[in-house]
Amino acid sequence: MTSRGRQPQCWPDMWVCSALSRALTPARLRRGLLSASDCHRAAASPYAASAEPSRVRALVYGSHGDPAKVVELKNAELAAMGGSDVRVRMLAAPINPSDINMIQGNYGLLPRLPAVGGNEGVGQVVAVGSNVTALKPGDWVIPAGAGLGTWRTEAVFGEEALIGIPSDIPLQSAATLGVNPCTAYRMLMDFEQLQPGDSVIQNASNSGVGQAVIQIAAALGLRTINVVRDRPDLPKLTDRLKDLGAEHVITEEDLRKPETRHFFKDMPQPRLALNCVGGKSSTELLRHLAPGGTMVTYGGMAKQPVIASVSLLIFKDLKLRGFWLSQWKKDHSPAQFKELILTLCDLVHRGQLRAPACTEVPLQDYQRALEASTKPFVSTKQILTM
């Protein structure tokens, strides 16, 4: 019973999971065809009353360290549902660099241990408590904040910890919606008043944020100069980024060459640079910025400091800023974050924002996914499927 003396609208586990498994075919998930009516039909089964609880599995770490060594797949129990709680069956959850950093213990936000890994993903509502009004069984939801622990098959969350999203977008887009595209959109909108035709330069352009920047910039009429590390599959990567809307794709080595400035003579000097690397790469971005421009740092893959020459700061009056989505959420209301999410969903609906290149990996094969996530030159995001 809930605190108000009413039973939550809860479906018995085993039968419902079996019914949902039949409905959740990969093709239907990718097309977003599982609807609330599918779930209501499952809930109405006369066999539900005799069902037993289903097994919940989660990727848990009890100490900080190498993810391959400290993360374990364990059985877990569902928390009891209260009136303001929502029971969610996770569908898919990516492995992001921030997830790895959090497990290693060197991220700006660390959950209490032991903790379930994963800050992002998409799930489907299975049941809601009696006080829940914004969500219903069958809805798709994503985390409202970091640290929720999405690498699990099922969980009970407070309603305020979730944001409902349209269920008619592709599964991979939904699973990767709440971190990288949000970061890309806010950096493009919040630091310089860019107009159609203006240009943006970024490094780590093959990253999840980088791919989102390319697409959102194209939707806004902005032109992009995209810097990547040299690699064996560079022509293939270049073609893929240009297919997303990249105007120029160039290597770190080529960006350092003096003659490169003539390569961009057909477009205005960028007033915004987006840095996820640091070190020499960030210095080169600064060198190509227009006077008065801004470089926003949101990552440090090289694990080296940002170095800005005195002459660039004095004679070009460049600005150095930082961005962290978790801080942006603290500074803005849940309604504003929901508005951001729906803006991105609209871009997905219009075909202007696709998920990054992804490799789907079953939850039980998590070791393979973690290993791939830490390899160099991997341009696909690992997504755990439940």
Number of helices: 16
Describe the main β-sheet briefly. Answer: 7 strands, mixed
Low-confidence stretches: 1-52
Secondary structure category: alpha/beta
Mean pLDDT: 87
CATH architecture of the largest domain: Alpha-Beta Complex
Given this structure, which CATH class of the largest domain is correct?
A: Alpha Beta
Radius of gyration: 22 Å
Number of extended strands: 17
Shape: globular
Number of domains: 2
Helix content percent band: 25-40%
User: Roughly how many Å apart are the termini?
Assistant: 29 Å
CATH topology of the largest domain: Quinone Oxidoreductase, Chain A, domain 1
Key features of this structure:
Rossmann fold, 7-stranded mixed sheet, 2 domains, Quinone Oxidoreductase, Chain A, domain 1, 6-stranded parallel sheet, 386 residues, 17 strands, globular, disordered N terminus, alpha/beta
